[in-house]
Amino acid sequence: MAPSNDFLRSKSSISLHVNGEPVEVSFASYKTLLEVLREDLQLTGTKHGCELGECGACAVLVDGRPVLSCLVLGLACQGRAVETVEGMASASGLHPLQKTFAELGAAQCGYCTPGFLLTAQALLDANPSPTFRQIQEALAGNICRCTGYIKIYEAVELAAARLRGEDASPRRETLYGTDFDDSGLLPVLDAGNGSRATSGSETAAVLRGQPDRKTENEKPDGREPR
Ligand code: FES
Ligand code: FES
Predict the structure, then answer these.
(1) Ligand 2 centroid to 67 CA: how many Å?
(2) Most exposed: 27, 32, 154, 187, by fewest CB within 10 Å?
């Protein structure tokens, strides 16, 4: 049933907590929490994506649980505690998740980042030691068109370790993408047959997409053909 014109013209006022501060806000009654945050409270860190509950860009925490703010009426947030990305940093600096996202390059255009950060924060609040699989599952409702996801999952893993008090650093291949040979100059690449190219000529062949003769003729177990 379509909303009546009276409802569309009406205004509502609610009291809630936003990022730990008590807030009173008036807004057109039909507005979603996403619209109230962005348009009436000027908290534009929460992103407006699909507006269909598909992309996760609008995720915020309501009473500590991740919700898609495009699917929640502002009116439904009377008395609730809402946390947005603006509330993640504290006087002591960025939240560990924000730091590891920046450190690992887990944010590129950044449009998806607030939703990922808050969803990840809810995960780590509930489970300080998630497995890689649990991180993937928790973030399955958030879409990123830039990063390929791996750096996001690794950033959450690293932040979790630091929040547990571990002296954790990013893995070398997370930052640099590959290993290097003993000279430190040549990347050690996967030759495509399960072996690793380590000499300059092998590396060059792999980079050209042309395995050298030995690699081509070698059997998978490393034996020469008869
Ligand atoms: S804008 Fe809410 S899920 Fe996409
Ligand atoms: S960083 Fe661009 S959409 Fe995720």
Answers:
(1) 19
(2) 187
Which pTM was predicted? 0.79
CATH code at position 152: 1.10.150.120
The domain total for the chain is 3
pLDDT tens string 126-170: 999 999 999 999 999 999 999 999 999 999 999 999 999 999 998
CA 138 vs CA 46, 47, 117: distances in Å: 19, 19, 11
Which residue range is the domain that position 55 belongs to? Answer: 12-85
* Nearest alpha carbon, ligand 1 atom 3: 53
Instruction: Give the dihedral sign, CA 120/125/127/131.
Output: positive
32, 37, 38, 54: residue to mutate for ligand 1 pocket, most atoms within 8 A of CB: 54
pLDDT, the chain, mean: 87
Instruction: Examine the pLDDT at 222 and tell me if it is beyond 60.
Output: no
Burial class (CB in 10 A: 0-12, 13-18, 19+), 201: exposed
